[in-house]
Amino acid sequence: MPDISVTDWIIASSAAASTLVAVAAIFGDWIKRRIFPPKIEIKLVESLPQKTPLYYNNSDGSLNSIGWGRFFLIQISNKTRNLYRLEEPQIAITEIEIKGPQRQWIRAWSGLVKLSWQYKDSEELGIKHNILGHDRIADFFHINSMEEVSFGNSKVPTAFSEVIKSEYQKDHLSIRFKIVGQTVEVDSTEILIQIEWDKKFHSDDSLAGKSLSVSQISP
Predict the structure, then answer these.
(1) What is the pTM of this model?
(2) What does the radius of gyration of the chain's CA atoms come to, in whole angstroms?
(3) Element (H, E) at 208
(4) Are 78 and 72 in contact (CB under 8 A)?
């Protein structure tokens, strides 16, 4: 049997220890994810947000006031942020429902329209868009005093836009959206938001609350 020096024993022991640590880390992470799986949630931030002044940027850099708007937001939360930093978060509209001939809800569109983060320049503030640590907020839709409405972002499929345009031509806007939060690791439970609006913009909150109803009805 060959002689094994103290140095050889140290090298062999170190290699074995490193292998054991690596195996323990792999199984430890597997066990952690089995017991405490990553979890994210999304929700409507406010059913009636405060009115916000709207401005138009002139070519000389000055601003012109063009009215008022109300901006509706969706929040995504990492419920396991003490355990995981989840990657590539996004919030997306997956389905539109409208009222059918018998006033029942029917699917009018399905796909994936990503919502834009509320602060597009937030990278300058140290907020990393590709990591979900603390809560993040995205723009869902807004209405304004010109009685216009806008959903999603500027790059939506034609079929999506056509459904919105068709429904907006009616006297009363009645529409539902299914929305999901996603990361590389996990998806949220879908939420369903229903919008009822007589297409009249009111600066007064009490009147606005009677004219416009935005509610998260599931889960």
Answers:
(1) 0.79
(2) 25
(3) helix 205-211
(4) no
